[in-house]
């Protein structure tokens, strides 16, 4: 039995980390290739803005709906379905004969990724309740790797083959991620072992937090009335808004400043890659802090400094400005950690994850779209960056609320 429990732990751990690797590749592989894709599928400035908005829109919609679906299917079965949707969307869109169908199939791919975003935190709470900080650090680090690598290799792979091959190739990682979840779903031993993991982990939680996670019963919750839920929404949403605005527009900002597209793609990869050390470090450090708001203040300062550099001197010291801006999204792994650290129950974690990520990604839609519209309307990068500065204020307000040592369930007592 002990051996079965250990095997199921490795199986679920591998599934969580491999799934995290797949959740951003379909998004970050596109921006460096916009000019190449434009030869086959016309992409106007407005279309680029829409394409940049689609991931957050799909993440928001499917993320918001996922907690409702959890009532009718297990987390493990839902993650299988979400990965399958991502695979089908990524492969099918490269065969799209026109821009409209390309966008529609991209929504299918992003929808699968969006459901995966919401499912991972409650899966961590379910299978690793005594190791939330460690598992969050590992899977968010994997997510950062899966964000940076496609952007870095997008142009070289396309130069060696085609943009269609480049976009479809990352679906192969999703196929690998699917394997442990299929084994978990079809193997009764894994299911039985998993049922033994939670009590064992809960016993450890009893020593640390006085109340075992698996025995807590979540009260009836209306998250629309919860300050905790709205705090997470603002923190997560504004972090994602800023991140996806730069995912969509950083290559354009830099190429217009005089950099070639390969260099601009490398800078986008640098922006994404800086999430690696932050993803590993922040959950481990913040999990030991009663109130991690000081960490947020450091990240906000990095955001502001990086944006000022990109606005005032994008062609000089580019690596420094991109590096500073890339440190700002350290609030992202902190947000994911707080989903579990500000809830007592698996049901609470699922609800907060769905609401915070669903509403947060809906808010984040404004990032790429408004950034592009302001650029098109003014012919300058100043107005778009002023917009981003304003969203950083909202990020700080939301972080101040969610970082307070108060549980979601306490909002309804």
Automatic annotation (TrEMBL):
Sequence intervals crossing the membrane: 41-66, 78-96, 102-120, 132-155, 167-186, 229-250, 262-286, 293-312, 318-339, 351-371, 383-403
Pfam family name, one: MFS_1
CDD domains referenced in this protein's UniProt entry, alphabetically: MFS_NIMT_CynX_like
Keyword set includes Protein biosynthesis: no
Entry-linked InterPro entries: MFS, MFS_Cyanate_Porter, MFS_trans_sf
Entry keyword annotation includes Transmembrane: yes
This protein's UniProt keywords: Membrane, Transmembrane, Transmembrane helix
Classification via PANTHER family: 2-NITROIMIDAZOLE TRANSPORTER, PTHR23523
Protein known as: CynX/NimT family MFS transporter
């Amino acid at each position: 039995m002990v051996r079965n429990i250990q095997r199921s732990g490795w199986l679920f751990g591998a599934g969580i980390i491999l799934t995290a690797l797949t959740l951003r590749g379909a998004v970050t592989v596109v921006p460096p290739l916009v000019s190449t894709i434009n030869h086959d599928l016309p992409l106007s400035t407005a279309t680029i803005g829409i394409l940049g908005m689609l991931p957050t829109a799909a993440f928001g919609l499917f993320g918001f709906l996922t907690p409702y679906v959890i009532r009718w299917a297990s987390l493990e079965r839902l993650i299988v379905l979400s990965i399958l949707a991502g695979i089908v969307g990524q492969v099918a869109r490269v065969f799209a004969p026109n821009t409209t169908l390309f966008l529609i199939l991209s929504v299918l791919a992003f929808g699968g990724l969006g459901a995966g975003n919401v499912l991972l935190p409650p899966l961590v709470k379910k299978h690793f309740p005594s190791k939330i900080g460690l598992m969050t650090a590992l899977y968010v680090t994997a997510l950062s790797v899966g964000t940076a690598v496609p952007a870095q290799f997008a142009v070289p792979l396309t130069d060696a083959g085609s943009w269609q091959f480049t976009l479809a190739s990352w679906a192969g990682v999703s196929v690998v991620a699917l394997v442990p979840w299929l084994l978990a779903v079809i193997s009764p031993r894994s299911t039985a072992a998993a049922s033994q993991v939670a009590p064992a982990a809960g016993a450890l939680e009893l020593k640390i937090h006085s109340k075992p996670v698996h025995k807590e019963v979540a009260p009836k919750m209306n998250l629309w009335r919860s300050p905790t839920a709205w705090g997470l929404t603002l923190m997560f949403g504004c972090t994602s808004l800023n991140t996806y605005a730069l995912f969509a527009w950083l290559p354009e900002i830099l190429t217009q400043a005089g950099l070639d597209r390969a260099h601009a793609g490398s800078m986008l990869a640098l922006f994404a890659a800086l999430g690696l050390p932050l993803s590993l470090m922040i959950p481990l450090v913040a999990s030991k802090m009663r109130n991690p708001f000081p960490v947020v203040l450091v990240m906000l300062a990095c955001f502001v400094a990086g944006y000022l550099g990109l606005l005032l001197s994008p062609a000089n010291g580019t690596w420094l400005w991109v590096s500073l801006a890339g440190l700002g999204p350290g609030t992202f792994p902190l947000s994911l950690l707080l989903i579990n650290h500000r809830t007592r129950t698996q049901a609470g974690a699922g609800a907060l994850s769905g609401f915070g990520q669903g509403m947060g990604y809906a808010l984040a839609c404004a990032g790429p779209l408004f950034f592009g519209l302001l650029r098109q309307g003014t012919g300058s990068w100043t107005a778009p960056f002023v917009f981003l500065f304003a969203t950083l204020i909202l990020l700080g307000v939301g972080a101040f609320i969610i970082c307070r040592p108060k549980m979601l369930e306490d909002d309804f007592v």
